[in-house]
Write a structure and sequence with these properties.
Layout: H1 3-36, E1 46-48, E2 54-61, E3 67-70, E4 87-94, E5 104-107, H2 116-123, E6 127-131, H3 141-153, E7 161-165, H4 167-178, E8 185-189, H5 195-199, H6 201-206, E9 211-216, H7 222-235, E10 240-245, H8 259-270, E11 285-289, E12 294-299, E13 304-309, H9 311-314, E14 317-323, E15 330-335, E16 345-348, H10 357-364, E17 368-371, H11 383-395, E18 403-407, H12 409-420, E19 427-431, H13 450-454, E20 459-464, H14 470-483, E21 488-493, H15 506-515
Parallel strand pairs: 5-6, 5-7, 7-8, 8-9, 9-10, 16-17, 16-18, 18-19, 19-20, 20-21
Antiparallel strand pairs: 1-2, 2-3, 2-4, 4-6, 10-13, 11-14, 12-13, 14-15, 15-17
Helix pairs in contact: 2-8
């Protein structure tokens, strides 16, 4: 066989393949571009809405749910009037060029009231939709029919975002909590509410629907609805962010500069869902963890000081509830955005509060925060079950020597586990520790510190000088541990009691980093 002919044929084949691939890529790009920018087609009478966007009006028959084109009266201008009895007015405004996926925003009530955020969304390629709503025209089968008309007949995204002001906020939540799998995000302004909405917020959190509230600090229903929704949604692990305009009441709604609102909605629509981590399993439940930190600053364009808090402003971490065979109840894992080399982790007992400054600093450094399960039928964590938890996470790539952490009675439990597993611990950090245990071990940790001292496990305690257990627990442990040759540091917070306020986390982070093996 002629070698030169073989090489020549091989080169021709490669060139041919490259040409085919290039054509396929070009076709794909052209097709994608066309699909992503394809304009949503509507028929019937149209008029111009703000900045010349095309507005299409329809009438829905409440009895049959039939939707037909309708010419809006000239005197309505950009607004809309209440419909005749037995009908609903329906409106869709389309962008000049549709964004990828045909996203859309659904106005809960009060069409054309403070529409600046919707105009901004139109500029970004969103459609804007509305169906008649007032004190008596509430969400129901008519809203479902309008949703089906827009998504199935006209190709709009199956997950609209919602915009609602006052009653519109209540109605946005009414439809969204009933159809939590069909919502991408919610922005409401001084929202109203009702009992059913509050009871069903867990469904929205289950589907990880991000929420933004914009409210006045002296709005009469702030505490009744917005703050109640915020607190409940946080407890369910949902992502909710809030902007409070200082000294403002129920009006004016929205923001003069709609960019923060439009950015929130756009980011929510297009956010990429994270992959399920290796340590998770089929029963794992994903929620969110974020701090209660806030900013308070003057915003000139709004003419107001604004308090901003929540994950949209402070950042957010994925939180997982992991159930394991042989372990009663679940363990929780808060996942850092960028795990540090070696996947270091904190093995702790007790709920991680939103003001847990040390845990938040460790997350920022790349540490996983794992809270071990406490069984429903036990008066504390069980040694054998915690051993299974440790094995599960180390088998999935976590460091072989976690940092043990706890405060108060939880500190006693983690130290008891460390005493039983001194070769599996890098360091111990505790706040106002109470060195007792009910189930983990037969001997109280305060009376059994020698295994830790012999293993060279360093400990750091932070205690309030006014904590009732300071002298009987912290000082006794310090004296005994040093007497055994153990390394222990005690930081005393003057005039603080059992519940500490730790503003400077550097000593703790430095201690953990220095002893993380």
């Amino acid at each position: 066989m002629n070698t030169s002919n073989v090489l020549c044929n091989h080169r021709v084949a490669i060139a041919g393949n490259r040409l085919v691939i290039a054509c396929l890529v070009l076709f794909t790009l052209l097709f994608s571009s066309t699909a992503q920018s394809q304009q949503v087609a509507f028929t019937g009478e149209k008029s111009a809405w703000h900045e010349g966007f095309d507005r299409y009006d329809f009438i829905m028959d409440e009895a049959t749910l039939a939707i037909t084109p309708y010419k809006s009266p000239d005197n309505e201008k950009f607004g809309v009037k209440d419909p005749q009895k037995g009908q609903r007015r329906c409106i869709i405004v389309v962008p000049k060029k549709a964004a990828a996926g045909n996203p859309w925003s659904w106005q809960g009530c009060y069409w054309d009231h403070q529409p600046q955020a919707e105009v901004e969304l139109l500029r970004r390629g969103f459609c804007i939709a509305y169906i008649s709503a007032n004190a008596t025209l509430k969400p129901g089968k008519e809203w479902d029919a309008w949703y089906k008309f827009l998504t199935e007949q006209h190709g709009l995204s199956v997950k609209p975002c919602f915009i609602g002001m006052s009653r519109g906020g209540e109605y946005s939540y009414m439809w969204a909590t009933t159809h939590p799998d069909k919502v991408s995000a919610i922005y409401v302004d001084n929202p109203g509410g009702n009992r059913d909405n509050l009871l069903k917020l867990g469904e929205l959190a289950k589907y990880d629907v991000p929420i933004l509230h914009v409210c006045g600090s002296i709005d009469p229903i702030l505490g009744k609805y917005s703050t109640a929704i915020e607190n409940i949604y946080q407890q369910f692990g949902g992502r909710i962010s809030v902007m409070i305009k200082e000294g403002f009441g129920h009006h004016p709604h929205s923001l003069h500069d709609p960019k923060p609102i439009a950015d929130f909605l756009e980011q929510s629509v297009y956010e990429t869902k994270t992959a399920i981590p290796a340590f998770a399993n089929n029963s794992t439940v994903k929620t969110a963890y974020y701090s209660n930190a806030f900013t308070y600053k003057y915003v000139p364009v709004e003419g107001a000081f604004i308090t901003s808090r929540g994950p949209y402003f402070t950042g957010c971490y994925n939180k997982y509830e992991v159930s394991l065979q042989g372990v009663e109840a679940f363990s929780t894992v808060i996942e850092p955005k960028n795990p540090a080399p070696g996947n270091p982790w904190v093995f702790r007992c007790g709920f991680v509060n939103r003001d847990a400054a040390v845990d938040q600093a460790l997350l920022a450094k790349g540490y996983y925060i794992v809270t071990g399960a406490v069984g429903y039928n036990n008066d504390g964590p069980v040694l054998a079950q915690w051993n299974l938890i440790y094995k599960h996470f180390t088998d999935n790539g976590f460091s072989k020597k976690p940092v043990m952490e706890g405060d108060g009675g939880a500190a006693g439990e983690v130290i008891a586990w460390a005493i039983e597993n001194p070769d599996k611990v890098s360091a111990i950090y505790a706040e106002n520790p109470i060195l007792k245990t009910k189930v983990m071990a037969k001997t109280a940790p305060l009376d059994n510190l020698k295994p830790l001292a012999q293993a060279g496990i360093p400990m750091l305690f932070i205690s309030g000088s006014l904590d009732p257990s300071f002298n009987d627990e912290t000082r006794v442990a310090e004296k005994r541990y040093k007497g055994m040759g153990g390394k222990i540091t005690v930081i005393v917070k003057p005039d603080q009691g059992h519940y500490l306020e730790i503003k400077d986390t550097k000593p703790v982070i430095d201690f953990i980093a220095a002893n993380n093996h």
